[in-house]
Protein 1
Amino acid sequence: MTQINRNFDQIEPIIRSLPEKPGIYQYFDENGKILYVGKAKNLKKRVASYFTKDHSLSGRLRVLVKKIADIRTIVVETEMDALLLENNLIKKHQPRYNVQLKDDKSYPWICIKNERFPRVFPTRNVVDDGSEYFGPYASVRMMNTLLDLIKRLYTRRTCNFNLTPQNIEKGKFKVCLEYHIGNCKGPCEGLQSEEDYNRDIAEIRQIIKGNVNVVKKELRQLMEKYAAEYAFEQAQEVKERIELLERYQSKSTIVNPKINNVDVFAIVPEEKSAFVNFLKVVNGAIIQSHTIELKKKLDERPAQLLTLAITDFRQRFNSDSKEIIVNLEPDTELPGLEVTLPKIGDKKKLVDLSERNATYFKMEQDKQKTLVDPERHTRRILKTMKNDLQMQEEPSHIEAFDNSNTQGSYPVAAMVVFKNAKPDKKEYRHFNVKTVEGPNDYASMEEIVYRRYSRLLKEDKALPQLIVIDGGKGQLSAAVKSLEELGLRHKITIIGIAKRLEEIYFPEDPVPLYIDKKSETLRVIQHIRDEAHRFGITHHRKRREKGTIKTELTQIKGIGEATANDLLNKFRSVKRIKEASIGELEKEIGPAKARLVFDHFQRK
């Protein structure tokens, strides 16, 4: 073992004596404070790996190992037991270097009270008194929807009277307003039997569990019984209950109803965190849904985080399902569970839905953070660009160039400016290429880059941190030549972006940089490149149109460019010049030239 811990001599005997069994290990610092809780299939191998691996690539892991002063372990029978124990210990101690898991104390439950004529109500306090608790519900709206359905289907008491047979017989209680408005059948005065009340409670229990089909079947049997006994009013009441259940169920069913009692998990990993969504599905209907964000502490892999989330969710929501559907294979074997990674079909639709929920949750989190700190998104993008492009400073000021010409005619160029990764349109500039004859993009690029930055230097204005050239190695080299002439070669980062494969070129580097197509850096570079192209094309089109119009006038014998400009400035278009009278033309260009223009268009 390599000594990478100042307390290594003290803890080495502990490591050597560890059993090769599954269990939990806990790391403590010199003050006895717990640093980290981990699970292991083999305690000895797992703990020893912390002190033999090269931790140079993981700063937080290196710091953790340096702080370890004591190691304590708990041996369990299986890796699954270790996973459950790890989850509980993390919640209890909240170690600094563990992914933080919220406990479920803040979530509401539905309680069926352990008493005669049980009450059904929401609560946030789970008491060990024999009552039944269902949940917790991550969505209060979902819980209230369920309670509202139960209220519309069944009459049940809301009072807290002690309804013992003796108290009822003695007439201690009187029916209240709930009885008179039809929300209770008056068990306090013996107006509803315990058997009848408990039959409703049994159906309520099934509905809360998501077994709506079981309740519907029982209600149909009851409806048929009433109908056979000619109790048509009661039969109609039961029929209305069935229809209400069917409406509720139709809103929830999203896949094949045969998919029964499964848990669905989807993870959406990010650079420093991951978002995990959980769906509880019974008879094809979602009865629970929750999403959490897990922030990485020690560069945990997505499979590790998913395993942690699966354990936490199943404990938190008291899941007893035998199958889980996932979008990524967990890193730990889960005994007694069938793990499905679907590729097609209804189960794939479910896992896609779960993944969308995790993505939407992430987007909502980002929006909320943006509202609190509007510059946060910009700072992250600039930091990412600095790292991806290996720059010395963040590119808060970017300028991009693009050339446009038609077979060498009307050559123009455009420059756009982005400040803090956003367009700054008042800083956009057009250039008419002056020194280049014919279609020569390289020479045109060299000219406009030189003109732009010689002017900035002359006017002592701020230079950009990054220049983007729309084109490959040729255009980039031409731009670099101008920067060298101006003494700016190593003062500004300059890159070229080629359209075909979106390669990023650096000067003097023959191998292009391929940035992830989904990265923010490439998106910003593409945006500024496309904006430069759009701005340049617009200017080129206007200049070409103006040149074409002017050529039509200068083709008239005796009419030069200056006269054509005077006419266009006055009449704004050739069409209006054609429609002008001889008198109107004479006012602008005199009688002789007016006659030439007038006769030319009259002949046409």
Protein 2
Amino acid sequence: MGSGQSMDSLSELERRYDPVIRFRPTGRKIGILITFLLVSMSIYHFYASGFGLIREWLHRGIHLSFVLSLVFLLFGAHQNRSRDSVKTTWYRIGGIGIWDIALAITAVAVSLYLPLLPAEIVAHRVGAPSVSDVVMGSLLLVLVLEVTRRSVGLTMSVIAVVLVLYALFGTYAPGALKHPGASWEGLINHLYMTNQGIYGVAIGVVAKYVFLFVLFGVLATRIGLGQLFIDLASVLAGRYAGGPAKVAIFSSAMLGTISGSSIANTVTTGALTIPAMKKVGYEPHFAAAVEAASSTGGQITPPIMGAAAFIMVEFLEIPYREILLAALVPATLHYFGIFIMVHLEAKRLGLRGLSAQEMPKALAVLSKHWLTLAPLLILVYLIISGRSPDFAAVWGIVGCVVCGFINPNDRLTIPDFIESLATGARYALAVGAAAAAVGIIVGVVTLTGTGFRLSFVVTQVASNLGGWISSGWLGMFLTQNGLALFFTLLFTAVACIIMGAGIPTTATYIILVSVAAPALALLGVQPLVAHFFVFYYGVLADITPPVALAAYAGAGIAGANPFKTGNTAFRLGIAKALVPFVFVYSPALLLVTPEFALNDFLITLSGAMIGIALIGVGFSGFLFSKMGRLERVWICFAALFFVAPGIGSMGIGFFFVLPVLVRQVLAHRRKLSASSPAST
């Protein structure tokens, strides 16, 4: 488990299983030019965030010009990248068609056309765009849709097109969704010339924060921090039953502190942990599922988390350190739930841990890689001390470079440094394209008022359903308002999972929070809690079939059935599906809510841990001995009383779970007696 994995091999695994970094092959000369542009993109963002004084609108425009042009150069028009050829002909230069080169140049022009104009001129033309404004805005709209299709997939582009049509033909929409409709000129004015569209919050956050943290993650992994985490996880958990699976959990949790990508986390740690899990006796689909479920925690694990966390900062206007603090306990519960199921599976199968020869030595690991912790400590210290995320990321990057050049182990060379800058830019292209497309979607929502219309529809349906249920005998225990909140949360969770099955987590979060947050606010849910609820369910889509990308990446490494892996990963990550409901009903779990009280927090945390553990028992079908189907259903039912808020519900839960626990203990004692020497 302690053997390293080359950066090239990990990059190849990521390209194979992550659709957003499947770049087409290019010829040598054009490849050098593209590398130069990628490195320039990284250097520009580092300069702009660390030392430059660039207008916000211009910064977003420059970022967008890099993203759009490089996507046209690196992603072919066809989803099957193998159809691209590196041959040079009269219509193709180094594998890139002249039409793609023309589109890249056009993208730069239309992205910078408006930001390069003086701010007062742009402000004067908002509401009354010129013909050239409409033409350039229309071109940008089309280019963003095509770039998103190439780099992210067809689903998100289709959603954006449908919403654009809805904006234009809203007079024909049914019921509460009906609106007066917008002209093409009015639509382009809103999407192109205001900060409510393409140049809005999403692209601004990616340009200001996300790009730097992606670059930090690439550099930190390159200088050996990722390998340190994997080796430390082996030292901590490798010797116990089913050791490699527990190593996968701990290593993914630690790697999640520098990676906001579920798939990158899966292939980085999974290349080592999945074969080791199979070796000690786990089935291939279970080994892949453990790695995938653990790796989805990367987007919810401080201090980096995913891009959505930075957008949350902009939406809620609260310090980033409060987001990190709020994420701490829910992330821990996610890993706790996986750990319980992995441990029970190992006990059920009687699996061994790693031998002393298979595990690295703690002192050897620390002596080799201790210096690589410095950049992460710098980053965390600056964030905790109240510095802005971009400031912390800049100095974290500086720390990576300095440590990389002075560290005798995994020394960073100039070619490595250049390649890391290029890789960081490559990894940021898809999220940049998605952010631009999200700008279109959010722009239509704000232009038409769709968010509030849908919120009204959702809350009305939930309230009617709650009223119907509470009118019966259940009304003695459940109120209409409580049921309305529950069904609104349930509808929102299902919508997040469905949306997340086709588009990235960040896009899912922004779209759903525009619709769901107003609905939850109407029912008294705090903004921070509502945003976290949507965020968590958007992340869950990475392990939810039919499009469980992280699970499919793990299945590819394990040689397992992808759909079976996805189902198992969802089962292992079931805690992530429960925890959001827990912190909605008891916000103290997020630590930074105004009504935080220590006693409420401790009661909620202990109840959540017991409930998650019991659900793990029920899903695993094993505690001290094998459980029947009725017992499994019964113990899962009992677990719901523990995750519900309040001492009273926990008492009811203990009452329900006690018979099963007694039967399990007695069965275990009989088994021990039957296997003892005296009985034979």
Protein 3
Amino acid sequence: MNANNVVDIYDSTLRDGAQAVGITFSRTGKLNFAHQLDELGVSYIEGGYAGSNESDMQFFSDIKKENLTTTKIVAFGSTRRAGIKAKDDQFTNAFLAAETEICCLYGKTWMLHVTDVLKTTAEENYDMICDTITFLREHGRRVFFDAEHFFDGYKNNPEFAMKMLQAAASSGAENITLCDTNGGSLPHEIFEISQKVVATFPTLQIGIHAHNDSGLAVANSIEAVRAGARLVQGCINGYGERTGNANLTTIIPTLELKLGMPCITEGHLAGLRPTSLYVDELVNQNPYLRAPYVGEASFSHKAGAHVAGVQRNPKTFEHIDPTLVGNERRILVSELSGGSNVLYRMKQMGASFEDVSKDDVKAVLAEIKAKENLGYTFESSDASFKMLAQKILKKHKAFFELEGFRVIVEKNGMQQPCISEATIKVKVNGVTEHTAGEGEGPVEALDVALRKALSRFYPEIADVVLKDYRVRILDPEEATKAITRVLIESSDGKSRWGTVGVSPNIIEASWQALVDSVEFKMFEDETKNKLEQK
């Protein structure tokens, strides 16, 4: 048992999270994930479903060769099947083959599932729980018991549901986790029922496993903890089947910072946002902009009054210090911005803006509003904002001059793919470069041609890659004549930045965003080199 206020975090991302639409972990990715969570300091990682597939069993084999300092790996599976002894059940024996210290097995606690899914009796279901746990305990395994559909089962037949928990407890389970498997329970129900279970089994650790079908998985998990649960199951970034599982990136800081209940390694909470981003990258997901605590927008301020408030006292519009979870304050600039937004954002961007005057700020703000009236947006286009401000304040250096470009899209026959080719002519330091590039699409071809033209003069642009490309039609009623906004997110492996372009021509809009992206990289590197030489 833990100290009374300490909560164990049990991560189920590699099993329950991987059941989500679009989520897949590679063999190496699973190991990297385990090390990332071990560094964060979670107590348990559920490595997969023992015996269900080769990939999960491979992970159990691979992870034994890794050195984890904090986290214990858990194998997941079910009770034995009806009508067969645990020692003869292939899935029960798969627990032993996984060779994990801890086994987490789930069993039915809702009579509906016993009769309609397992097609058996309450007595046999009781025996299935007892027999499986006893078998694993006899083979030296620690056993956690997931009471599947417990809250629905309790509301339907509390006597039966509690009897199944008693079966697990009497057979040697050291943890009983109550599952809201359908995600339909309400916070007050979770609290009341969990409190009764905690009181009934005072020597056992009680856990909570909540799904998010009603959008309440985090709230339900917190309510279970308030009722006495001391283990929380969930997934990083809320991945999971259907609408997802309880989001650990929300639960962890809520427990630590709001309830004063330690749940990860002390001093490692600032690794939360980096962990969230890292896991999104592992499974090729775009980070959720508005995720509590860890999202890019979590501590972003747009309205002038809000910006003025947080500048005077951050507590006015921020519930925690963003650095506690590895995040940062962001001041957005838009048509709603006041001068304080613009000034704050400019000062955040470096020494070149430290000496700006009130007139400078007014000039930048006026241009932002004019540009946004045309369809530009600078909320997520920080690099384009910086380029714009530099031009207005006459601090901009043109790294090259465009003389012209041409893009050709060719298709031969219905079954053949399109071929895109771009030619570009630019002048750098008086030298003209004329290059061509090919790509699967016209924007890629233009990007390739631009890089070829500039790489001889600015080799550092080889590090720049496009991470995201988004197109928005601003006036769809104009059909094919509509204004197009292109947003590009770029990275050099160390940082990420956003740029924007707007035009009735999608290629022209893409060009604007590409130029800002490349020039931003070159300007940042030049500024860094100058500072290092001082």
